[in-house]
Amino acid sequence: MPHRHNHSDDDHSQDTHSEPNIPTMDDFLQGAPIIPGKIAPGISAADLIDTAFQAYNAGRLNEACRLYATKMLKPENDVTVALTVAGAMTPAGIGGAIITLIERGAVDVIVSTGANMYHDIHHALAMTLRRGRFDVSDVALQEAGVIRIYDILFPDQTLLDTDTWLREIFKSFPQRPMSTAELHYLIGKKLLETGAQPEYSVLAQAAKYDVPIYTSSPGDSSIGMNLARHQLDGGALTIDPLFDVHETTAIVQAAPQNGVLIIGGGSPKNFYLQTQPQLWEVLGINKGGHDYFIQMTSDAPHWGGLSGATPSEAVSWGKIKPDQLPDSIVVYGDSTVSFPLLAAYAVTRAEPRAHKRLYAQREALVAELREGYRNGAQHSPAE
Fold first, then answer.
1. How far is it, in rounded angstroms, from Cα 353 to Cα 359?
2. Phi-psi region of 212 (alpha: psi -120 to 50; beta: other; left: phi over 0)
3. How many CA atoms are closer than 13 Å to the CA of 9, on its beta-carbon side?
4. Structure confidence at residue 328 (pLDDT)
5. Residue 6 confidence (pLDDT)
6. Hey, which residues are catalytic here?
7. Long-range contacts formed by 164-168: CB under 8 A, 24+ apart
């Protein structure tokens, strides 16, 4: 019969001392008290968030606002702030909040779906999108020549006129491969020069302040579709997605700290977060992960989709630093509600920052990335 070792009292005492400290009641009850305060007439959005948004997803929005305003936008922290945008945000007028943050130096780089940038052009060209209803007959809308994005309505001629405008300006651009950042910058410059109301355009204001805008799926929008026709018409202007990979990775590698603000999720979310695996997994440069992470999403992690993937899951990929999880917040809800509130909080509680003007630095940053890869990268044993 196998011998069973019985621990002596001394052995048991020694094992007990080796156990980690168990949190006490006081350790758990360190948070601010919840106070059912009254709401005064004329209260600001920032004051409302600070006083009334205390628990559940209101509490998460409170935490996200304070993280963004007091840490990510703190000048001495020198955080490169990326904004990723999925969903039809610009048709809903959310571009106004994005422009506000661009003007204040609160956003340094953007990754968006192409559709958001395409519909942004309508505003700059004074092609009006109107509030409508979501329960109208789509058959009747189609017969009347009206396009619907949930409860947003506009004439289908808006698409045709925007397409014509794009194809015309493509002729004046350099006929060579380029990154989506360069393409968007050139479009933005044209909107600044010729648009009826460029102050309403994310593309135009990003070009004004040298904020690079990338699209993770350049063929998946009407901008890409019209660029394809431009090619059929004999144009040599093309998008090279690998340029985007180099440029976004170089921006992240050069930043003292990196923070990301994610609207929705999807492909833009992954495209920016993949810069960290690109550094350590592919290039052998151990950057270590992003420092700050805020996501606003209506998705949940148990469906397995990227839009619901949590910050802790991103740690396993090396996208977020493990010790920075306390500075990683997910707000579950409608981004058209939560994002303008966060922007309002930021412009109230945080001072404007100096513009990093990263668009103008792209070539130099990619040269630094190439040099670091060639001279300092630790390549995998398989190589």
1. 17
2. beta
3. 0
4. 77
5. 46
6. 319
7. 165/121, 165/125, 166/121, 166/222, 166/223, 166/226, 166/227, 167/226, 167/229, 167/230, 167/233
pLDDT given at position 345: 98
C-alpha 64/C-alpha 56 separation (Å) is 13
Q: What is the pLDDT of residue 323?
A: 61
Q: Which residues contact 188 (CB under 8 A, 6 or more apart)?
A: 201, 203, 204, 205, 206, 207, 208, 213
Q: Which residues of the chain have pLDDT under 70?
A: 1-19, 298-327, 376-383
DSSP line for 6-33: PPPHHHHHHHHHHSPPPP-HHHH--SPP
> How confident is the model at residue 266, as a pLDDT?
86
Neighbouring residues of 7: CB distance < 8 A, sequence distance ≥ 6: 15
| Residue that the structure tokens 């630095």 belong to | 361
Looking at this protein, which amino acid is placed at residue 315? V
Instruction: Find all residues with CB under 8 Å of 356, minimum gap 6, and list them.
Output: 80, 105, 108, 210
Residue type, 182: E
Tokens found for residue 83: 């904004």
| pLDDT at residue number 288 | 79
- In which residue are the tokens 């991103």 written? 314
66-129+157-375 topology per CATH: Deoxyhypusine Synthase (3.40.910)
- Provide the whole-model pTM: 0.88
3-class DSSP state of 304: coil
